[in-house]
Amino acid sequence: MADTFDVVIIGSGPGGYVAAIRAGQLGLKTAMIEKDKKLGGTCLLRGCIPTKALLYTAELYSHIQHAATFGINTSNPSIDWAQAHKHKQKVVDKGAGGIEYLMKKNKVTVFRGVGKIAGKGKVEFTASEGGAKSVIEAKNIIIATGSVVTTLPSITLDHKRILSSDSILELPVIPRSIIVLGAGAVGTEFASIFNHVGSEVTLVEYMPNVLPIEDVDVSKELEKHLKRRKMNVMTNTKFEKIETTSSGVKVTVALQDGTKQVLEAEYFLSAVGRGPVTRDIGLESIGLAVGPKGHITVDGMMRTSVPNVFAIGDVTPHPALAHCASAQGIVATEFIAGKNPRPLNYDRIPNATYCYPEVASVGLTEKKARERGYDVKVGTFPFSAVHKSTISDQAIGLVKIVSDKKYDEVLGVHLVGPHATELLAEACVGLQLEITTEELAHTVHAHPTLSEIMKEAAEATLGHAINL
Question: Which of 346, 371, 391 is the last residue of a domain?
Fold first, then answer.
């Protein structure tokens, strides 16, 4: 370990391992430190990927239950939750193995253990096996330590009845009933999983709408369909306290009018957020301060206030999304390698929530566009007017386009409906190329496809929807 590395990356999540791959491609002598047994970070090991695996199982089961609609006769379909977990783990293991291979392919040295900055150009490494300590010399350091689950001070997670988004992934049974606190992406996804497999689900949100960061029209549309699926959705509702019982939990909440209500369920999931891992990683040894919420401030090249120290992913005050971290990792390593990378435009970082129906967006909401002074025009178009959605009996949701009247530039695209997270790709490309609503409307789309809805929404924004 006496050799000096061009770059040492602390953390192997979607920010860290992508940064390592790009650094290797660029010929930089690269090391990556990871404390978990497997590479991949939260996203792969206990976040995005295992959650989506369970979501797929749950949604498939739900569709099979309604297969008779399409002329397929199934009798008494059942779900094997243990097998669902095995499938989930198989997906995770394959992903972790793939990252291991990519590290070898790109000549990245992987250290298993805990990394901590120990001064200028130095990273202290404590090995997982044996606990031996050593110091790695680094010309550049990239902090990619990610985030961890946080909860309200009044909630004590016992990981038996009161669960986090980590521990619920290992829940061996399907709950008869569950209360989910927090209707952000994590909460709505888990609520959808258990709603699909027959649990009685109550979704509690302090803000006026589910998915509060999304455009309000999309949030309201999602809430409407969640309720149609017999989910108890409670917005404008404040959590007060929780207590365990012999059979589950009792949760006291305060409604908007001030009245109190006691909810009972077999399990409780706290899905109120995550916090950056910036404590105890040696920032004080180089005089690097963090913000009030623990984030590290960076510039467009992901540089911190300390020379040759970079930060990417959830430790920065930017969208805590895997694809954002990956993009930041590439910017940082290309800058280190002497390239001239383009800074990220965070307005164009897409959001994707895999609840049912799916929600996806890129760009400005109508509210944000107006706040920035744009003279806004909007158009919406429902999936119910698209034949392909009717074929699959998923004619639910809508697309909303937010545009600037003056130059006709598309400022934001917001979807709720079938395969919304996949349909979003067209909007991401369009915004990157500064597409106008007219250009989108004049783009011929194949028929019958779900993607036709993008053209139709553009036509609606221009005031002449065709199939509505």
Answer: 346
360 pairs with which residues across the strands?
Answer: 352, 415
Q: What is the pLDDT of residue 1?
A: 47
Residues 336 and 370 in one domain: no
Amino acid making up residue 142? I
Structure tokens at 201: 């689900």
pLDDT-based confidence at residue 468 (cuts at 50, 70, 90): confident
Query: Cα separation of 51 and 29, whole Å?
Result: 34
The boundaries of the domain holding residue 330 are: 4-148+275-346
Give the domain CATH number at 215: 3.50.50.60
Contact between 312 and 142 (Cβ < 8 Å): yes
pLDDT tens digit sequence for 264-277: 999 999 999 899 99
- 159, 387, 442, 447: the catalytic one is 447
User: Three-state SS for 419?
Assistant: coil
User: Is 432 a member of any domain?
Assistant: yes
Closest by alpha carbon to 441, among 404, 405, 408? 408
> Is the distance from CB of 225 to CB of 358 less than 8 angstroms?
no
| Parallel, antiparallel or unpaired: strands 4-10 and 133-143 | parallel
Residue 87 designated active-site: no
DSSP H stretches of helix in 237-386: 322-336, 366-371
- Give, in order, the Cα–Cα distances in Å from 111 to each of 41, 136, 250: 14, 10, 45
- Residue 156 in any domain: the answer is no
Report residue 257 as tokens. 């009018």
Give the Cα separation of 19 and 107 in Å (integer): 13
Six-digit token string for 276:
């950056």
Considering the domain architecture, whether residues 254 and 312 belong to the same structural domain is answered as: no
Domain edge (last residue) among 272, 297, 320? 272
Q: What is the pLDDT of residues 336-376, one digit of tens each?
A: 999 999 999 999 999 999 999 999 999 999 999 999 999 99
Provide the number of structural domains found in the chain: 3
